[in-house]
Design goal:
Elements (H helix, E strand, L loop, with lengths): L10 H5 L3 H15 L27 H17 L8 H8 L4
């Protein structure tokens, strides 16, 4: 079965930033960090995606929540060894008992 996951190694080839514009952006950002006024304010990158960039899948937050975060929450709510209940564990963790 072939994986449908996106290979993040391809990101570098898809974006190919212009070195001159990157250097200018670096100078402007450095000026901001130093408290100086740059010649132009750095802008948030926006605009339409190129056809090459459109192959990058959008994040599936529901899948990420259900596969990664939800099991972690379940483990955190289970009382560890030595505690009779979740309430007893929470009292211990928060210094209430």
């Amino acid at each position: 079965m072939e994986s449908c996951a996106f290979d993040v190694v391809r990101l570098r080839e898809l974006y190919q930033p212009d070195p001159a514009r990157m250097a200018l952006a670096r100078q402007r950002q450095t000026a901001l960090w130093r408290g100086e006024k740059p010649d132009a304010w750095p802008a948030i990158i926006s605009g339409a995606l190129t056809s090459a960039q459109e192959v990058i899948p959008t994040a599936n937050l529901k899948e990420a929540f259900e596969s990664a975060l939800l099991p972690s929450i379940g483990q955190a709510l289970n009382p560890p060894e030595g505690f009779k209940s979740q309430q007893e564990a929470l009292k211990y963790w928060y210094g209430l008992g």
